[in-house]
Amino acid sequence: MSAITLPVDDEVGVAAFSETSALLSTYKRAPMELVGGEGVELIDSDGKRYLDFASGIAVNALGYGDPGIARAISESLGTGLIHASNLYRTAPGEQLASKLVERSFASKVFFCNSGAEANEGAFKFARRWARKIGTDAKVEIIALRGSFHGRLFASLAATDRPSYRAPFRPLAGAVSICERDIGDLDTALDEETVAAVIVEPIQGEGGVRVLDADFLGRLRALTEKREIALIFDEIQCGLGRTGYFFAYENVGIVPDMLTLAKPLAGGLPMGAVLVSEEIASTIQAGDHGTTFGGGPLLAAVAGYVVDRLSDPSLLKAVRENGTWLGGELDVIARRSGKVRAIRGTGYIWGLDVVEPANEIVKRGWDEGLLALTAGEHTLRILPPLIMGQDDLRRGVNILEKIISQ
Questions:
Q1: Contact 154/172 with Cβ under 8 angstroms?
Q2: What is the C-alpha radius of gyration for the chain, rounded to an integer number of angstroms?
Q3: Residue 403 burial (CB < 10 Å; 0-12/13-18/19+)?
Q4: pLDDT band (50, 70, 90) for residue 19
């Protein structure tokens, strides 16, 4: 793979990323300016390389400089058709939807631009279906403690982050959060008023908490009995990150809807809602829409990404390397004495640390490692799915150093 770099103007390159940046300050950005990427490394404007244990927050599953992504973009641009309204049919979107249907429980797919939009769409579809089978009172959406589903008004209402929610109240109504307890859910899931439950099989932003398969199975039984839609949010944990194409395959639970985004289009903005036949049959023209969702350029790239991420050999490598990685993280925990707990599977792991996790992330910059947090005291690692064991070992060695300091 060859490095992809961006030209840096000597007069504006660094200044554009300084404190005088015209970008709205919704992020506390790291000080380095990234200008290129190669394989599983990112490169800053000084030429320094960083081993990527973040993947753009689970987006860059195929790393950097993937020739298939470049080829798909080039071929799509060659048609002259970057965008076409969803009032018309284009082959890439139709083909991508067919691939996702063939690989899943779904009968239909809706494309959008992000994970938050995918969850908002799923909420609408759930309410449309629930009113069809019940009454106008069957509208409530239930999320779980520790959840993160987005920052739009309904998805934010389903996100268990008080500091994110408080400045923007009132949020969307009839959306509430319940404990991760089957007894509490048994009480909360009123078949007359609840339209859907949304669940992350692995709560990424909530601390990389892997939900127990038995718990999910009992929840599935409750929702089926009471005619409540079960939505799996696999925006962060889906598309190969667990070593299975969909995370639900590993737990043996089939949802009614599933939301995807992050790696779907290889870094281009794309989300999707996979919908069962029963729910899809209640959706009518005009019930929902999107200007850009499923456009030909993005869908062409996503078609290539789906083929790569569903490759059995890649998924097997993620499972096997993920097991090895979990063992190495356990060694770090025992040797350092500064890790309280480890959770994860495949290429998604969280380490509860004794100091603010952000301090460890910052030390990683100096050592050439990019990692993430998932709460104040949880260090999160999300390597590209193409990362081999040699690079994983290199990252683990750096992790041990910056955790132990």
A1: yes
A2: 21
A3: buried
A4: low
The rounded mean pLDDT for the chain is 94
Mean per-residue pLDDT, 139-160 = 97
Residue 342: is it exposed, middle or buried by C-beta count within 10 angstroms (0-12/13-18/19+)? Answer: middle
Q: What's 219's domain CATH number?
A: 3.40.640.10
**Rounded CA separation 193/173 (Å):** 13
Q: What is the pLDDT of residue 15?
A: 35
Cα gap 114→101, rounded to integer Å: 19
Same domain, 124 and 23: no
Provide mean pLDDT across the span 213-241: 98
Q: What is the pLDDT of residue 1?
A: 43
How much is the pLDDT for 4? Answer: 40
CATH number at residue 34: 3.90.1150.10
Q: Tell me the sheet residues that pair with 252.
A: none
Query: CA-CA distances (angstroms) from residue 129 to 193, 219, 367, 380, 391?
Result: 13, 19, 52, 37, 47
Q: Which residues form the domain of 181?
A: 68-309
* Residue 346 contacts residue 202 (beta carbons within 8 Å): no
* Residues 160-207 pLDDT 10s: 999 999 999 999 999 999 999 999 999 999 999 999 999 999 999 999
Element (H, E) at 34: strand 34-38
* Domain count across the chain: 2
Place of tokens 């993620």: 318
Please tell me whether residues 263 and 333 are part of one structural domain.
no
145 and 202 together in one domain: yes
